[in-house]
Amino acid sequence: MTFHGVDTVSPVLDEYGAMVREVMGAYLPKEEPRQYLYDPVADYPTRGGKMMRPSLCIATARAFGAEPARAARAAAAIEMLHNSLLIHDDIEDESEERRGRPTLHAMHGIPIALNAGDTLAMLSIRPLLENVYDTIPWLALPIIHDMERMARESAEGQALELGWRKDPGARPTRDDYLLMVLKKTCWLAAIYPCRLGAMLGTRGKIASDAFIRFGFFFGAAFQIQDDVLNLRGGPAYGKEGCGDLWEAKWTLMLIDVAKALEDSEKPRFEAYLRKSRDDRTEDEIAWLFDKMEAIRAIENAQAFARGLAGAALREFSILLADVPDGRDKRFIRDLITWTFRRDH
């Protein structure tokens, strides 16, 4: 992989992120009940974030010839849905921080947070429907079909991850982890944003499997790097350090640790898995982190992620071979290597 000296990613994320936030503002109600619904609904969307998913949608749409305004509305739908899922993820993961601030359920309680997440998910459909009906009515059904598949894949991936944490006897393999990531991360982070953008730009003339391989390779590389960053946490990452270990999430690193344990260490690991998050101790987290370092699990995961990124670059060169070179095409290409330069 080549790291380019000029930052072609951050300026586009800033520009397209601002564009999407402005569009989202029109779809976040400013009416009653504000305190118990619409203020919490607007909380996560106004906290910032990388804006990678909506920017990828806009860049793909523009690379294939779509108008910026049309692409921005589609991107706003993706960002709204993403934030709705973050609200639910934080509840399911018992997370304490999101983007450097307390999670929504920590601030308002689980019932209000759940209702806000549900409402934001439903509101995310509005810009998408208005977009296609105003411009290309016959694209509405294919786009909604794709959105339905993305939502289903995401739910299935989340179910796998939650199920492994619920079952202390679960021992997912690397292949299991990659299947979970394909479903939970890749469809929303890369596959659907690219497919939606390409559908808008080509007016639906894309192959039925377009961007699935690219989105998997890029999305999996992004998720593995995110798992690595989670181990240190802090203000830049926006969540507590080693949050995945406190939550007993099966990352590539934890999978490698489980395989490397001595027989004498296995009872301690089993006890860790059976505990609730609140009952896990600093000593247990430090022990597992030290085991990861001892077997070079973190370095191995990063090397694996870089291999996936290389495969994503190859898929990119095939998918966009006929697209003229330009700012948006370069952004998509360089976003792949940017994954390893980010700190959150």
UniProtKB/TrEMBL annotation:
Keyword Metal-binding: yes
Enzyme class: transferase
Gene Ontology MF terms: transferase activity
EC numbers: 2.5.1.-
InterPro entries per record: Isoprenoid_synthase_dom_sf (IPR008949), Polyprenyl_synt (IPR000092), Polyprenyl_synt_CS (IPR033749)
Keyword list, A-Z: Magnesium, Metal-binding, Transferase
Signal peptide: none
Cofactor(s) this protein requires: Mg(2+)
Family, per entry: Belongs to the FPP/GGPP synthase family.
The protein's name in its UniProt record: Polyprenyl synthetase family protein
The species this protein was found in: Sulfitobacter sediminis
Phylogenetic lineage: Bacteria, Pseudomonadati, Pseudomonadota, Alphaproteobacteria, Rhodobacterales
